[in-house]
Amino acid sequence: MIPFLAKLFRGFHLIFGVSAPPPGQNERQFVFAWLGILAALAAFCAVLFYLIPLLYFRQ
User: Fold this and answer.
1) CB-side exposure of 21: number of CA atoms within 13 Å?
2) Quick one: CA dihedral 6, 11, 15, 19, positive or negative?
């Protein structure tokens, strides 16, 4: 699973024009860093989509 995710995230790096570590080097750290970024983004969106209606429809 780690090699598949590393290949996927390496593709994201190529799309955005950021250099990624070569295949086989630090793949586990690379994948966990991306998973951490995605988890933080998901948490931020969840809080944001909870707070906007809460503050907008507050009476």
Assistant:
1) 13
2) positive
